[in-house]
Write a structure and sequence with these properties.
The protein is of the alpha/beta class. 29% of the residues lie in helices and 30% in strands. The chain starts with a strand and ends with a strand. The model has no long low-confidence stretch (mean pLDDT 97). The structure holds S-adenosyl-L-homocysteine.
């Protein structure tokens, strides 16, 4: 029993009965007990049936995020310790060939708003909800104890915190902030990761399996890696025997790190061309030069964070995919992604199909790709599935 509680409006309990972990403000009839931001509240249906214990977030449309479905298991430091230990223990299955992985994937691991990535001996955390923020110190203490990592760094410098009434924040929580980059091993390759200045927590861990897939498909091919960031796909293509790789990336810092990563893995500089450029313009430039590639990767940033942006995003996806299809040599492969929550897999496939049609390229889907398994998707929380990809082969 918690001192504060939420009572839902009549007939608004169904999502919670299906164990969807969010309580929307519009479903709430009454809040009793003046809970503080992030405090645990009991959630009841209108008929006073107990539903869940949730973290209260007074400023968010997502007013509650469920910790558990039982009234008996108190949400306290021990509860968090048990849940963190269980989650992290389950990740060891993915540790065999990498010392970089996502240890905690928020709602899908029963830890709403908490993201923890491990890069060798450095942990990087994001506290994205009022509940995760409330338990921040406890969580950091437990993480340090469970993993033995001496450095815990916070990268809560993300937009979504403002929806929770929280300020962006970053900095060392344990140990000193890493100086320079942290070096990781991923599937026998080395990468330098900038956890302080890099995107997200430093590296796109969600693409690990897809990088490996590109490695397997790259032999002898001329590869174009668009939106290359620090060179993950390009390096894997070279590892797989690509004839040459061209990287296109608008961030000079990311590209500089990509160059270091290629050198770190002993690839000769003459097999890689690094272009600091806008992909939309670069693809048009290649078209005008009549260049062709055997394998093209398109891994753009989130064009549609929500469904409201879907239409504009669809045009951007169509544009780059159309241009990429035009640059593909016969028998070439297009590995194309969307990480937009606002563009679902069906819509994405339609956009790519439309792009092939307009490019007058006959193509088929060889494989459908998704996020790596250390980014699990709880069955009751389909929102966690954001990354979709297609491997298309041109005839
Ligand atoms: N494929 C990468 C991740 C790509 S993230 C990996 O596996 O590590 C998207 C990248 O696109 C970011 O590095 C961002 O700087 C870059 N970017 C965003 N808009 C761009 C544009 N219009 N042209 C070129 N690069 C862009």
């Amino acid at each position: 029993m918690n001192p504060a509680l939420i009572i839902l409006k009549p007939d608004r309990e169904k999502p919670l009965l299906r164990r969807h972990p969010w309580v929307f403000s519009g479903a709430i009839a009454e809040v009793q007990g003046e809970p503080a931001s992030g405090a645990t509240v009991d959630v009841y249906a209108a008929d006073k049936t107990f539903l869940a214990q949730a973290a209260y977030s007074p400023e968010s449309q997502i007013r509650g995020r469920v910790w558990n479905w039982s009234p008996d298991e108190a949400v306290d430091a021990d509860f968090l310790a048990r849940r963190l230990a269980r989650t992290i223990a389950a990740r060891t299955a993915y540790e065999a060939d990498s010392n970089a992985l996502r240890l905690v994937n928020a709602e899908s691991d029963g830890l709403p708003g908490l993201v923890v990535d491990r890069y060798a001996d450095t942990l990087v955390c994001q506290f994205l909800s009022a509940g995760a923020e409330f338990w921040r110190e406890t969580i950091v203490e437990q993480l340090a104890e469970i993993t033995g990592c001496k450095t815990v760094y916070e990268r809560s410098d993300v937009e979504v915190r403002s929806l929770e009434g929280l300020e962006a924040r970053e900095g060392a929580l344990r140990g000193a902030a890493p100086e320079g980059t942290v070096q990781i091993v991923e599937d026998e390759m080395q990468f330098k990761v900038d956890v302080v200045e890099g995107h997200k927590t430093g590296f796109y861990l969600d693409q690990r399996r897809n990088r490996l897939r590109v490695r397997e498909l790259a032999e002898g091919r001329e590869v174009l890696d668009c939106f290359s960031y620090t060179g993950g796909f390009a390096a894997n293509a070279l590892q797989g025997g690509a004839a040459a790789v061209t990287l296109v990336e608008s961030s000079a810092d990311a590209l500089a790190l990509a160059r270091e990563n290629l050198a770190l893995n002993d690839f000769p500089a003459d097999r890689a061309e690094l272009l600091e450029a806008d992909v939309f313009g670069a693809l048009r430039g290649f078209r005008d030069q009549a260049r062709a590639f055997d394998l093209i990767i398109l891994d753009p940033p989130k064009f549609a964070p929500t469904r409201a942006h879907a239409e504009k995003a669809a045009r951007a996806y169509k544009d780059i995919n159309l241009l990429a299809f035009k640059l593909l040599a016969p028998g070439g492969l297009l590995v194309t992604f969307s990480c937009s929550a606002g563009v679902g897999p069906d819509l994405f496939q339609k956009i790519v199909a439309g792009a092939a049609l307009d490019a007058e390229v006959d193509a088929r889907i060889l494989e459908q790709l998704a996020q790596a398994p250390d980014h699990p998707i709880a069955l009751n929380f389909p929102e966690a599935a954001y990354l979709k990809g297609l491997i298309c082969e041109a005839s």
